[in-house]
Amino acid sequence: MSPTIGTPPYYSRGGLTIYHADRRAVLPTFGDESFNFVLILPPYLVNY
After folding, report:
1. How far apart are CA 19 and CA 10, in angstroms?
2. Is the separation of the CB atoms in 21 and 45 below 8 Å?
3. Pairwise CA distance, residues 6 & 8, whole Å
4. Which pLDDT does position 23 carry in this prediction?
5. Measured between alpha carbons, how far apart are the two ends of the chain, in Å?
6. Residue 33: inside a domain
7. DSSP per residue over 1-48, as a string?
8. Residue-level pLDDT, tens digit, the chain, 48 residues
9. Structural domain includes residue 6
10. In a domain, 45, yes or no
């Protein structure tokens, strides 16, 4: 089941769905045990 996050999936086929979005908007829309794997990358070109 796909969440409602206001942006379409970047890729979706055969049970695999990839969102190119802010993880803070995407992850809370899923249930607690919805994932087998999550890959997130830090923002680039950000000076801390």
Report:
1. 5
2. no
3. 7
4. 78
5. 37
6. yes
7. -----SS--SEEETTEEE--S-HHHHGGGS-TT--S-----PPSS---
8. 455 667 788 899 998 888 888 878 878 888 888 888 887 777 776 665
9. yes
10. no
